[in-house]
Amino acid sequence: MGSTSNFTIVALLILGTWASQAISQMSLEAAPAKKHEEWMAQYGRNYADNAEKEKRFKIFNDNVNFIEQFNKYRNRTYKMRVNGFADLTKEEFLSQFTGFDVSACSSGLVPGRKLKSFRYENLTDVPGTVDWRNQGAVTPVKNQRRCGNKSSMNIYEKVPSNSEEALQKAVYIQPVSVAVDATNFQFYSKGVVSDDCGTRLNHGVTIIGYGTTEDNTKYWLVKNSWGEDWGEKGYIRILRDSDSPGGQCGIAMVASYPIIA
């Protein structure tokens, strides 16, 4: 009798453990699904059918895991977060939100008129911090997908290529249109991008200032075109005076500013 009772108790304990594990597993699986539903509600996302929703959920979950791992284990100078692009693969994101297309973006990033010299070459006493937002010279951030630095002026001059010193002088005078490698910008949230990008120019943006962080990291203050929900309310900071040829993310490779004819 005693043996039977002991066996019953052990069996019940095993079944209880299995049940507990099953419930825990179901909870773990339900958590990402709930997070996706909340994200869909936040961004007003709807899908054509369940197959599309399941596909997007998998992409969303993979991106969430990537962002969490990036922020937790990678010692970087910037952070990522879940945003409105979280159900897109990197390839889809780049296809829809980047594309350095001169014909589509009247951004001053076409070959400027030939100059004998850079007009700000002899400029001295350039301040250490500039933010054109403080002067009312920057329009509100909009979600314009690929092209974010359109200008009503169609005459412009080029900044000498690959010179961050010349670029700083130009930005001191006015905002400057540039092209960057935005391949890894999808989930940027805050901080100074100091790695994880090359010089494959694929996106047009506008430098509207520059400065230095409290830990003496120099940066360019850049206005993007993916809405205020992205980045630092629509802006991104990119390392300034980088050792990389062409500047961090190629920011000094192709730069120009509009002028009055």
TrEMBL record:
<protein>
    <submittedName>
        <fullName>Cysteine Protease</fullName>
    </submittedName>
</protein>
<dbReference type="InterPro" id="IPR025660">
    <property type="entry name" value="Pept_his_AS"/>
</dbReference>
<dbReference type="GO" id="GO:0006508">
    <property type="term" value="P:proteolysis"/>
</dbReference>
<dbReference type="InterPro" id="IPR013128">
    <property type="entry name" value="Peptidase_C1A"/>
</dbReference>
<dbReference type="InterPro" id="IPR039417">
    <property type="entry name" value="Peptidase_C1A_papain-like"/>
</dbReference>
<dbReference type="InterPro" id="IPR013201">
    <property type="entry name" value="Prot_inhib_I29"/>
</dbReference>
<feature type="signal peptide">
    <location>
        <begin position="1"/>
        <end position="22"/>
    </location>
</feature>
<keyword id="KW-0378">Hydrolase</keyword>
<dbReference type="Pfam" id="PF00112">
    <property type="entry name" value="Peptidase_C1"/>
</dbReference>
<dbReference type="GO" id="GO:0008234">
    <property type="term" value="F:cysteine-type peptidase activity"/>
</dbReference>
<feature type="domain" description="Peptidase C1A papain C-terminal">
    <location>
        <begin position="126"/>
        <end position="259"/>
    </location>
</feature>
<keyword id="KW-1015">Disulfide bond</keyword>
<keyword id="KW-0732">Signal</keyword>
<comment type="similarity">
    <text>Belongs to the peptidase C1 family.</text>
</comment>
<dbReference type="InterPro" id="IPR000668">
    <property type="entry name" value="Peptidase_C1A_C"/>
</dbReference>
<keyword id="KW-0325">Glycoprotein</keyword>
<dbReference type="InterPro" id="IPR025661">
    <property type="entry name" value="Pept_asp_AS"/>
</dbReference>
<dbReference type="InterPro" id="IPR038765">
    <property type="entry name" value="Papain-like_cys_pep_sf"/>
</dbReference>
<keyword id="KW-0788">Thiol protease</keyword>
<keyword id="KW-0645">Protease</keyword>
<feature type="domain" description="Cathepsin propeptide inhibitor">
    <location>
        <begin position="36"/>
        <end position="93"/>
    </location>
</feature>
<dbReference type="Pfam" id="PF08246">
    <property type="entry name" value="Inhibitor_I29"/>
</dbReference>
